[in-house]
Specification:
The complex is a heterodimer of chains A (122) and B (118). With 122 residues, chain A is mainly alpha-helical. Helix content of chain A is 86%, strand content 0%. Chain A has a single domain, classed as 3 helical TM bundles of succinate and fumarate reductases. In chain A, α2 crosses α4 and α4 packs antiparallel against α5. The chains are: A mainly alpha (122), B mainly alpha (118).
Chain lengths: 122, 118
């Protein structure tokens, strides 16, 4: 137990600790959401049976809209936060790092906006 | 980044590779689903000619494998981080990850490849 307290005490605390917890919490939620999505679309239905009518019908249902939007939001935050950590680990030249991190933030924002429009568009 | 090597190292490298791969697919998937809102006919054709085409099956199976590994190894990470566990169990947990991966991947791959055989 003492070891665990120490581990967090030497870290940068605050933000990075929150990020550390977020990866685990969102990971547990994505376990149900992402695997559920995969099973529904690829096992219960199959890509061969999916067309625009199926997808639009699904996106007209508020239950699936909330499900898909939670999946979209958590997957983007989890994925781009992972990418941010990977860039920090491997890219040491500060100009490159800042460029790549900026691209990551912009891509995350754009993906979130486009994905949300797809889900909530009337 | 290399630390200590061995099984933990490979579990970690695979976790990062599958994570980046899944993120790239997610971005592609957001773009393809955007098409259903602007031009439904194009979307249906795209699904038929790409995602449902026989040549895409290996990518679909690879995506399922990546998600399954990332999920199972993620559970291992959470278990190790939140429960004080002697390090001897870390390797056994990775053994469990591989075992469950094979156990779930084989029937999963069968369902994905099913249309090819019918």
């Amino acid at each position: 137990m003492a070891e665990r307290v120490n581990r967090f005490a030497v870290g940068s605390g605050g933000w990075e600790l929150a990020s550390w917890y977020f990866m685990r919490l969102s990971g547990i939620l994505l376990l149900g959401l992402a695997l559920g999505h995969l099973v529904i679309m690829h096992v219960l239905h199959g890509v061969e049976t999916i067309d625009s009518a199926f997808v639009l019908g699904r996106l007209a249902n508020p239950v699936w809209q909330v499900y898909d939007w939670l999946l979209l939001t958590l997957a983007l935050l989890h994925g781009f936060n992972g990418l941010r950590i990977i860039i920090d680990d491997y890219v040491h030249a500060s100009a490159w790092r800042m460029t790549l991190q900026s691209i990551g933030y912009i891509a995350a924002f754009l993906a979130f906006v486009v994905g949300s429009v797809v889900i909530w568009a009337a | 980044m290399i630390y200590r090597g061995g099984i933990g190292q490979w579990a970690y490298v695979l976790h990062r590779l599958t994570g980046v791969g899944i993120l790239l697919f997610l971005l592609m998937h957001i773009v393809d689903t955007f098409i259903v809102r602007i031009h439904p006919e194009t979307y249906t054709r795209l699904i038929r000619d790409v995602y449902a085409a026989p040549w895409f099956k290996p990518f679909e199976v690879a995506l399922a494998a990546a998600v399954l590994y990332h999920a199972l190894n993620g559970i291992r990470i959470v278990l190790i981080d939140f429960f004080d566990m002697p390090s001897v169990y870390h390797k056994r947990l990775f053994g469990a990850v591989l075992f469950l991966f094979v156990l779930l991947f084989l029937p999963g791959a069968y369902f994905l490849l099913r249309p090819l055989f019918s």
